[in-house]
Amino acid sequence: MPRAPVLLVGCGRWGRNILRDLAIIGQPAVVVDTSAEALAAAQPLARATRRSLDIDEQVAGVIIATPATDHIATIEQVARLEVPIFVEKPLASRTGDAERAVALTGNRLFVMDKWRYHPGIEALGALARSGELGPVRAMRTWRLGWGHSHDDVDPIWTLLPHDLSIVLEILGVVPPAVHAVAERGLDRVWGMTAHLGTDPLCMLEVSARRPEHRRRIEVVFETAVAVLDGDRDTLIQIRSDDGDRTTSVGDDPPLRRELQAFVRHLDGGPPPKSSGRDGVAVVRRIAELRGMAGLDG
């Protein structure tokens, strides 16, 4: 019996990567996009392509990779299918919208936080839970680069959810917002430095106006500092007063791993890591930080 497809809504720049990895793991997809060009590009890998969500195919689940400001409207349209929904981050750009999405879908809604599936981040989380290096005292993250390809939201909404999900994976919670400073241009916002929590303290810096490409996570334990220095890094560097050491981690692509987790859930396995309620918590925290930075007021 053929495997039931998932419905992939949105097959643009990022959706194409999702479709590619679905094909690699053997999960068929019906692709919906309003762009004829996107559908033509998707056709070789898709079971079927459609221009609208008015479909009659039986699908096992839904993956949403539309622009962030379209997420809630799309969730409202596919909720009638009564299947699990996997939506790209951020869940929404307003807390009320995110809460409404969860109210509508309940436990069927999940957020695609691929960094929670990065082997290095999982290793840092395991170190934190083990207590081997003592309690976590601080976290520092940098997500810096040049340019912003999203027209609907500013870089804070596209970059900061990644680092908040990393904090969630390592600490198990998203600490309260303490302070934030926005990085502003003449007519736009480029980034933010955010301070969350006190013990542990979390300092997160995101920017789309830096000449270097930087993805770095530092976890400050009582007795050592552990570092993942890049999204493709396969080593955790640990420095302490006793010297330096490294720990190897896997190199499986995080996007593929999170899609595998969703497909396993469709087959009756455990849910993906980030629930809809986790997504609401991230949106709420970003909204609070933006208010502290004098944005959206």
Give me some keywords for this one.
297 residues, alpha/beta, Rossmann fold, Dihydrodipicolinate Reductase, domain 2, 2 domains, six-stranded parallel beta sheet, 14 strands, globular
**Beta-strand level of the residues, as a percent range?**
25-35%
| Number of separate strands | 14
Give the end-to-end Cα distance, rounded to a whole number of Å: 55 Å
Give the CATH H-level superfamily of the largest domain: Dihydrodipicolinate Reductase, domain 2
Overall mean confidence score, pLDDT: 96
The number of distinct structural domains comes to 2
Output the structural class.
Answer: alpha/beta
Strand order of the largest sheet: 8-9-10-7-11-12-13-14
What is the H/E order? Answer: EHEHEEHEHEHEHEEEEEEEHH
Could you list the spans in which at least 5 consecutive residues all have pLDDT below 50? Answer: none
Please give the CATH class of the largest domain: Alpha Beta
Largest sheet, strands/sense/barrel: 8 strands, mixed
Question: How do the strands and helices of this protein lay out in sequence?
Answer:
Layout (H helix, E strand, L loop, with lengths): L5 E4 L5 H10 L4 E4 L3 H7 L5 E3 L10 E4 L6 H8 L6 E4 L6 H11 L3 E4 L6 H12 L5 E11 L8 H17 L5 E8 L4 E8 L4 E7 L1 E13 L2 E5 L6 E6 L2 E6 L5 H13 L9 H17 L5
Parallel strand pairs: 1-2, 1-4, 2-3, 4-5, 5-6, 7-10
Antiparallel strand pairs: 7-11, 8-9, 9-10, 11-12, 12-13, 13-14
Helix pairs in contact: 1-7, 4-8, 5-6
